[in-house]
Amino acid sequence: MTLSNTKEKMNSWNSSLLLNIPIIDKQHEKFFSMFDEISHINSDTIIADKAQVERLLKELSLYTIYHFKTEELLIERSGATNLKPHQEQHSIFKQKIDKFINDQSYEDKELVNELVVFLRNWFVMHINGMDITYLNDVKRYLYKD
Ligand SMILES: [Fe+2]
Ligand SMILES: [Fe+2]
């Protein structure tokens, strides 16, 4: 087994999610490592440290702002279409995390696990359904001579 296969087994990130825009791919991969970190704590046999789960969710929320701003700026500058519906999808994702934190739902391990699975699946669909629509324009914008 190669090193990359081993890594793919341990981490839910995988190469089928690559857009081949390194700045974006690195951020997407970071999201998956955050999802994995939270779900790992949740499934641990040791009683989950609620303060730690809360901290990780807040980090996820902050990273969400950073990533979505990066994408929205690139979409705007490259002249790619779909900015508005794309922003709307981003906003739904962000609201979902923030409502969860504000409701203190991280107190319940099962709810945390459900949220992480939902967000991870949503993220895969978002990359394949929405992020992919800016691919050509952003590549042209970033890599033009
Ligand atoms: Fe996006
Ligand atoms: Fe994205």
Structure summarized in a few sentences:
The chain is 75% helix and 0% strand. The protein contains 6 helices and no strands.
Portion of residues within helices? over 70%
Name of the top-level CATH class of the domain at 49-145? Mainly Alpha
Inertia-based shape: elongated
Mean pLDDT: 88
- Structure class: mainly alpha
Strand content: under 5%
What series of H and E elements makes up the topology? HHHHHH
What is the fold named in CATH at topology level of the domain at 49-145? Four Helix Bundle (Hemerythrin (Met), subunit A)
Second-tier CATH architecture of the domain at 49-145 = Up-down Bundle
Give an account of the 3D structure.
With 145 residues, the chain is mainly alpha-helical. The protein has a domain at 49-145: Up-down Bundle (Four Helix Bundle (Hemerythrin (Met), subunit A)), CATH 1.20.120. It has six helices and no strands. The radius of gyration is 16 Å and the shape is elongated. Mean pLDDT is 88; it is low at 1-9. Bound molecules: fe (ii) ion (FE2) (2 copies). One fe (ii) ion (FE2) binds next to helix 4.
